[in-house]
Amino acid sequence: MSRVRHFNVLARLLHWSMAIAILAMLFVGAAMVVSLRHHDQLLDLHRPLGLLILLLAVLRLINRWRHPPPPLPADLPRLQAWAATASHWLLYALMLAMPLIGWAMLSAGAYPVTLVDGVNLPAILPHDPVLYGILRPLHGVLAYLLFFTIVAHLGAALYHAWVRRDEVFSQMAKGD
Q1: pTM confidence score
Q2: How high is the pLDDT of residue 174?
């Protein structure tokens, strides 16, 4: 049996699509915090984009289960290998948790979760102002954690591309 050398095409497509969507989401979320003038338009973009990220994250996990990723280099120090594995699972957890917490927060606040005009998702929590008051800051704190995890992920990718010059970066950047 030959060793998998690259992520499959679907994994790479999902990775780069989600990278764009998540970066857009972080900028939209930050702009929502500082812009009263455009808040409603940004929120109208934020909600469906969050749900798209949730859907793509689920597809990505299914694909990862069906097509395991290539192994890390055998000479990678144990701590770095652990950090790589832990940070990937943290990214997956945040890609799932952020949209779900946003949806739950809106549900608890009795706000509609609108995909497009006239198409609303059902509430996943009952209206509860106290729960809304807990979920709203949690959503923001996790957004910062997501941002810092992405920066670390990018730093690790560049470390593999420019310093170690091993296969890790090319496994996701290009195909066979």
Answers
A1: 0.91
A2: 79
Q: Comparing C-alpha atoms, which of 3, 13, 162, 173 is closest to residue 71?
A: 3
Q: Write out the DSSP string of 79-143.
A: HHHHHHHHHHHHHHHHHHHHHHHHHHHHHHTT--EEEETTEEEPPSS---HHHHHHHHHHHHHHH
Q: Which CATH number is correct for 9-173, 3.90.180.10, 3.90.25.10, 1.20.950.20, 3.40.50.10240? A: 1.20.950.20
With vertex at residue 80, the alpha carbon angle to CA 75 and CA 86, rounded to the nearest 5 degrees, is 130
The per-residue pLDDT for 81 is: 95
Hey, what are 81's tokens? 């290998």
Residues of the chain with pLDDT under 70: 1-4, 175-176
Sign of torsion over alpha carbons 80, 83, 88, 91: negative
Q: Where are the domains of the chain?
A: 9-173
